[in-house]
Amino acid sequence: MKTSVLSQLGQRSEAPPISWLMKLTLDHPHLISLAAGFTDSESLPVEETRELVNDILGARQSGKLALQYGTTAGDSELRQLSAERLRRLDAAGGPSLRRPKLQGRPHAVPLPAAAVYSPDRMLITSGSQQLLYMVTEALCDPGDIVLVEDPTYFVYLSIVQSHGLRCRGIRFTEDGIDGGQLERTLEALKRSGELKRVKMLYLVSYYQNPTGITTSFAKKVEALKTLKRFERAAGHPIYLLEDAAYRELRFAGDDVPSALAVKGASERVIYTGTYSKPFATGARVGFGVLPESLLTVVLRIKANHDFGTANLLQQLLTRAIGSCQYESHLAVLRRRYARKAATMLKAIREHFPANVTWQAPLGGLYVWARLPKALKSGVKSKLFQSALKHDVLYVPGELCYAEDPGRRKPNHEMRLSFGGASEADIRTGIARLGATLRELLDG
Amino acid sequence: MKTSVLSQLGQRSEAPPISWLMKLTLDHPHLISLAAGFTDSESLPVEETRELVNDILGARQSGKLALQYGTTAGDSELRQLSAERLRRLDAAGGPSLRRPKLQGRPHAVPLPAAAVYSPDRMLITSGSQQLLYMVTEALCDPGDIVLVEDPTYFVYLSIVQSHGLRCRGIRFTEDGIDGGQLERTLEALKRSGELKRVKMLYLVSYYQNPTGITTSFAKKVEALKTLKRFERAAGHPIYLLEDAAYRELRFAGDDVPSALAVKGASERVIYTGTYSKPFATGARVGFGVLPESLLTVVLRIKANHDFGTANLLQQLLTRAIGSCQYESHLAVLRRRYARKAATMLKAIREHFPANVTWQAPLGGLYVWARLPKALKSGVKSKLFQSALKHDVLYVPGELCYAEDPGRRKPNHEMRLSFGGASEADIRTGIARLGATLRELLDG
What we know:
2 copies of one chain form a homodimer. The first copy, chain A, is an alpha/beta fold.
């Protein structure tokens, strides 16, 4: 046996950080995990889902529909509802668009038809993760370049890594990527003749994983303009892949319109959203909105992956959204996360040393804490090991940085999730982490 | 815009045959489709599923579990139940193993522990299709070779095509592939120096799609032995990918043990099964059993695809199997398909000309009809067009043949499905097809 039987992708696929984080959790039964991106268990819509499923399966006709294969693109009613919902969100979101606010009830605000939000540009996926994977497959060959936020969603980095892609990290500011650096990066790639390898810019634009930061609409406009200017030299479109996985988990501030709302840019925007986090992570249903030519290709890939997301789950979400149960659940969820975030921030203020900084999130599941640069937070650091000894787990910041030859990976940050842990555990966990931090900073 | 922005895979991805077959169905609202691989709608377990979901979501604890993320490998109880079920099937199946028959009830037959059926070698997937995709990703680079049955499952050919793989078709006999041709093919590849590109042999071993043929245990033993002999020259393992998607849909004859039961060969067998077809295609849950080293890689790929199949669906199947509702539903389903198959065969005997041949299936969803070689059945053929004019659709046999430089694609066969159509439609559809066939053969 001299050569590997594995493909290049197979050989490149590394153990995802999530798997050893989960193993640590299993090895430490009393561990308080502030690492997992789990959603809040207590507020899961158990009773609502039971009722909705009873409605679907209580009638023979809708029952049979839900238990039979659907189409690869997904249920047409769910696409219709999702497209409409997205259009309303975009129309209502943010003062920049000067449109009336979303009233919480569908059909309340009459809006002009907008081709960009057509259900025909949409497909239903098994969570938004599957869309990220398929879009990457459709666009990128080994050696191609994806521009990412610095830091970014670490599971996306696993996709990138297994496909043999290269990354350039664009510095993240308080309202999105640094437009100047995006431009300089593209200029440098143009000079080195690598611009044709650049396929897209990946943005986690709402309550970002891991930083909690939301990208402003102005930054989206700017980014699309910048990408456009380099297309001629690239020889092909450069897409903006907007990952809006946390958009619905807004508990303060205004919504921001998506990049789909940027005038004239819809042919360059790939938008992905999900109902997993805002409704139930156990019912994985996400969706994507894509330029038509790309949608065609992604649908072919989806046909090969699984020829369509489980219809029962799609019907569940169709009913949930159609009956406004989804909306009411969202309201509950937002209050819940607002409270859990406040609990975490209060504990951080109480227990963390003064030279640890953070930004209060307006949504999502995460607080991003920056330590003094001398204090390492990585897996092998004293901090991580000491936290583990005190039964607390966080995601080391370094995991969220792409391999980028242009800079060293920062190694002094922590992603803290208030999603899965109970409020009591959040308080205890942060207190223990605070004690560890003080010990190491004083010591 | 000079170059394509798409990846090689994106550029290679072709419109799957299934998509235009579906379009034809939409364009012809009165069409009787004997083409779709849909399962029987009337026997879908609507009420059973409703009860099971009520059980799961009726209790807060199991409800929360079902609506939260699970692990990438899948629910441990479902893996346990699936592994045990598979072991019992393999132990009971076929006289060749000289073991007591499956009694229909779990725990009835004590069996020795067998490491090969360990739940630790298993992962849960979104249908068996997803496993086929991921295994192909894990093993094959563009230019690699997959050995397939001739004919084979046409969606697998789409996966192969999009990944830029090459195929060699191995002639199919009445109990599986022609062992002699397998050997000659491998010999020829050895001589041409291409053996190192051969990664696996793909077999749809039960009530095959499209032919309905079941591979005998002896043929599995023989195939594994042959593959093994060429491994040294290949420089790596050559796997047998056994697709058992239709195994549970047996309505006559004995079950046959899977290739996992072949002594000493478990490290070379990748087995995939599904609960989609035998339970509900709208609740896509499948599973795979893999050699450990390969499982590790496929789990990493699965983490990137979707980090785990929807937990709600997994809990549904866990309950269905654990409560034996799955078993009772299977009994109903088998009687139903036996009847639909008999209806189709009776109609074929009545209406098809004498020089059309077929083999009565013992399970699955398909009858494979062979026409006189002069009578073409392809998409552009008179037969296909005339059938369409009479509102009947079948799958042209040519779609089920891989691109293989060694032979022309046969073009005189039809796959006829009795899965989705009602008995009345089966009768009418076959009668119309028979009339068309007579017209063309007489004309």
